[in-house]
Amino acid sequence: MPRVAVIEDDLPTSNQLAGWIAAARPGIVIDQWTTRDEAEQAIERERYDLIVLDIELGRERHAGVAIINAINKRHGTPVLVVSAMPATIYRSIMKALDAWDYLQKSTFDEGDFVETFLDILRSVKEHRPVEALAMDPLRQRSPTWHGQRINLPLTAQRILAALFARRGQVVSYDELFDVVKSGRNRDNIRKHVSTIRDAFREIDPGFACIESVPMRGFRWTDPA
């Protein structure tokens, strides 16, 4: 099910937009954020399918610009900007920042918003690439890389799942200790990671998605 975020500091407006989305796509998961800090923290945690964003949040006149830049650095999630700023000025600015579309408040109705929102969501679905890594460690099924099975013991699968779930972020040794049942020390974690890398390189010699971060832990980075 798609997951979207509505980032809007005016709660009645936020609730209205969320209500329109929910009515148009029953069952869709909607997160609502009202501040730049909340929004940026959510972007770090979640991988949204689409983000509806106001430019001005509280006293920060261009908070939305900073949030779009943060989005582009993370996942490049499509953004629909909904703002009171004049469209004649800000539509081109937002396009330059790679926003997908711009709607000026008070100039559109529910039908306009829903049509634009659904068009973007359909486009995202049509163009989203299939992720190279597929895995289900809870069911003890071997993960696959580009469709090819990777032979890994269960503990290594759990570590891989932890890294992949937080891709782009550093997963600390302490966090990885929670994944293993025994051998909770750095040397053991490094051995498991080495096993994971070797297993990937058996089918993909150029595999380099797991980075070592000295003194901290490891990070999964998606292939370019």
From TrEMBL:
Pfam families in the cross-refs: Response_reg (PF00072), Trans_reg_C (PF00486)
Q: Which SMART domains match?
A: REC, Trans_reg_C
**InterPro entries, alphabetically?**
CheY-like_superfamily, OmpR/PhoB-type_DNA-bd, Sig_transdc_resp-reg_C-effctor, Sig_transdc_resp-reg_receiver, WalR-like, WH-like_DNA-bd_sf
Domain Response regulatory span(s) in chain numbering: 3-120
Q: Which key words are in the record?
A: DNA-binding, Phosphoprotein, Transcription, Transcription regulation, Two-component regulatory system
Q: Which residues carry this modification: 4-aspartylphosphate?
A: D54
Q: Name the GO terms of the biological process aspect.
A: regulation of DNA-templated transcription
Which molecular function term from Gene Ontology is one that the record holds? transcription cis-regulatory region binding
Q: Where is the signal peptide?
A: none
Q: Domain of life, per the record?
A: Bacteria
Q: Does the keyword Transcription regulation apply?
A: yes
Q: Which GO terms describe its cellular component?
A: cytosol; protein-DNA complex
Protein name (record): Response regulator
Organism equals: Pseudoduganella ginsengisoli
